[in-house]
Structure formats: C-alpha cells, structure tokens
Amino acid sequence: MEETLKILVVDDDEVDRMAVRLALIKTGVRMELTEIGDGNEAISILGDRTYDCVFLDYRLPDQDGLTLIHKLRSSEIKVPLVILTDQGDELIAVELMKAGATDYLSKSRVSSENLAQILRNAIRLHRAEMKAALANQQLRESHELLIRKNQELEKQRQQIQLQNLKLLEASRLKSQFLATISHELRTPMNAIIGFSQILLRPKFGQLTHQQADMVERILNNGKHLLMLVNEVLDFSKLEAGRLELKPEIFDLSKVINTTIAEIRSLAEAKKLSLLVHTELPNTLVFNDPARVRQILINLLSNAIKFTESGGIWVEVKEMPPNRVTITVRDSGIGIAPRDFKHIFEAFRQVDQTITRKYPGTGLGLAIIDSLVQMMGGKIILESQLGVGSMFKIELPRQITSPTLAVDVTALHLDGDEIFYSTQNSHQSPSTSSKASVGYPHLKL
C-alpha cells in the first residue's frame, strides 16, 4: 500500500499556493495537504504535528525564510524544508541551504515533474539524516556508557590493587611469623630430642621397659614435630624467596640408597615392600644433595603414608639430553584427576577435615614443587583411585650455579676418587681436579 505523505505549504500568495497544490496533485502522490500563509502559524502547526515535507516561501509578510529556519532549528523541529524562491534569489537560497534547508526551487520552475523529484529527494535525504542522527545519538550514548563502565572498571581495578597490596602485606607478615615461630620452636624441640636420646643410652642409667617406651615415644613425636616445623620453615623461606640452593658434586645413587635405608623402617612397620632400581651410567651430578634428599624423603613419606598394602618402587634413570629422572611409584589409595591441580598447593590435602585419616601440614608436595622448579626440573604425576600413584621428577644433571660451572659430562669415578673439571665464574681457565669419594658430599 502506497504511503500517504503529510505536506505543508507556507506561502502568503494564494496564486503561488494554488500552483504548488496543482503541481503536487499532478504528481499522483497520495498526500494530506495543509496550506497556511505566515511564518508564526507555521511554527505553531509544526510544533503540534509531524509533516513529511514543507514547501516554504522565502519572502513571508511576518519574517523571511532564513529567520524562520533558525526558529525551527532552535525549537528542535526537524522536517524537510524546500524553499520556494523568486527569480534571482539563487544566492540567497544557497545561504538557506547552509542554514538547514533541504533544497530550493524557483517558483518559475514549479511543475509536477520538478516537485515530484524534489519531494522524493527531500524526504529521502531527511530520513537518511534522521537515521544518521539516531545512529550518532546511539553512538554517543554507547560512548558515554563505555566511559562510565571504564570509570567503574578503573575504580574496581584500584580497589583490587589495594586489596592485592593488603594481601601481599598479610602474606609477608604471615611468612615472617611462620619463619620466626618455626625458628623459635626448633631450639626447644632439638633439646627435647637430644635429652630423649641421652636418656635412652645405657651409660646414663638403665630405664625400665615402661620408662624406655615413654622416652621413645617422646623422641619419635619430637622428631615428627621437628619435621613439621622444618617444613613450615622451609616453606616460609621459599615463599619469601630466601631459600638458596647449595650445589655441589655428589653421587646421586649413594644419596638415594642412604635415604631409602633411613626410611625403610617406616615401610616395614606397615609391611610394605620398598624396592629401588638404578640405571645410571654416571651417578655423579651437580645439585644440592640435601634438597634432593628432602624431595625423596617427602615423596617416600607420602607413598608410605597413603599405602596400606603392596609396596613402593623407586626408579632412577638416565634421560637425554643430560637429565636424570627419579620415579616413586606406590600401590596406595591414588588421587582423583579433579584433585591433580590442587595437591601441589600449600596447606592443601585431598581430605581437608580435622578428622582426616592421614595427618600432615599439607606442605610436602608444595615444597617439592618449588624445589624442583628452582632446580630447573619438572614433576609428572600419574594416578588412579584405588590403584596407586606415580611421581616422576626430572632434573638436570647440572643445575645453574652463579659462581661455578661444572662439566658434568666429564665427571667420573676412579676407585675412591672423583675426577671433574670446573670453571670459576671469576676465572676463565678451566681446571681438572680430583677429590676423595669417601666424603658424603663433595663441596667445591
């Protein structure tokens, strides 16, 4: 169905209005035509009704067309304006166009063809301008909304940053407290352990069976508590970045066998088998032996703790290029895949309840993870509930030392001596050396 256009003709000359009316009728356009004779009435009627196009005489008795255009624009009245000019008013028409008129037409050229073309163009242009204005308005509103959102986000970012600073300070104070309290606890714990060991020696007096059992309990619980305190102290140092590795050349196979011998009694107490298999053509490495031992103790302790029957297997192998792997496998309770990402978090255990079956601080694996990263290695975990777990530690044969470079490929044993080559960071020439293998840890 064809659209019915609302058209307003503003002209004080009835003959001119008739000429426009007849020309519009000849165009065949469906329309509702309104005719008035002065500018004030035009402003009034345009304020009350909406028109698709206005044909406006430039020279009205109460005001000229330019003044009327300014009044319409200041009143926020937006409508297509076609200015009807007399012969010779073309320059004035250009100024009217600049002021906001849509088009102009000389009265001497009024015809159905000209009016039809100008009407279509004026309406099309006006509607395009309205769409553009609407789009610009929406764009401005979106821009203002984005500005407000950005301001809110910036405010939230500042609040988060402030909270982070508070959390960092709280974490620092917590680490400082843990380090202080752990250090203070070690002194009395060492005294308790030392005096318990003295009481158990026969030369200091014979204890009854009941007394010896009580002292042994004191000693064992003291050692356990000291281990927990040491874990907290090590973690606080790691978290504060104050724990440093002390690398040296040592026999990895010897450290592993010694550590397993120390912990074997725990496995035997639960009737678990503990087997070790080593395949290392060259057993010498450059690392921190105390921390390697700590990693192995934590892994074995966990394996024994969470295994009720079966056994634990330790495997040490060569891994190209120039790396070694230490694998601890058990037949314990296993770990659910959903818990893999959590077990290396500090103070985190799969069972977090206070009535949990397996005690501990939850720091063992977190410390292992941090130490392995410091050594430039990585941890691989495989586990299945009810079947068991496997922790594989990959470590470089030679960790980075700020003061000493060691050619680990040149390390070898010959009888009771270790032959090695070193290069001090402060001295460019390389040196070849030898040292007795009788020492448990060979410091350079």
Number of helices: 9
CATH architecture of the largest domain: 2-Layer Sandwich
Number of domains: 3
Number of strands: 16
Q: What do these coordinates show?
A:
- It contains nine helices and 16 strands.
- It has three domains: 5-110, Rossmann fold (3-Layer(aba) Sandwich); 170-240; 248-436, Heat Shock Protein 90 (2-Layer Sandwich).
- The model is unreliable at 351-356 and 425-444 (pLDDT under 50).
- With 444 residues, it is α/β, with parallel strands linked by helices.
- The strands form four sheets. Strands 2-1-3-4-5 form a five-stranded parallel beta sheet, with helices on both faces. Strands 7-9-10-12-11 form a five-stranded mixed beta sheet, covered by helices on one side. Strands 13, 14, 15 and 16 form a four-stranded antiparallel beta sheet that branches.
In terms of topology, how is this protein built?
Blueprint: E1 5-10, H1 14-27, E2 31-36, H2 39-48, E3 53-57, H3 65-74, E4 81-85, H4 90-99, E5 103-106, H5 112-199, H6 209-240, E6 248-251, H7 252-269, E7 273-279, E8 284-287, H8 289-305, E9 311-319, E10 323-330, H9 364-374, E11 378-384, E12 388-396, E13 404-406, E14 412-414, E15 417-424, E16 431-436
Helix pairs in contact: 1-5, 5-6, 6-9, 7-8, 8-9
Brief account:
With 444 residues, this protein is an alpha/beta fold.
Keywords:
five-stranded mixed sheet; 16 strands; 3 domains; rod-shaped; single chain; disordered C terminus; alpha/beta; Rossmann fold; 9 helices; Heat Shock Protein 90; 444 residues
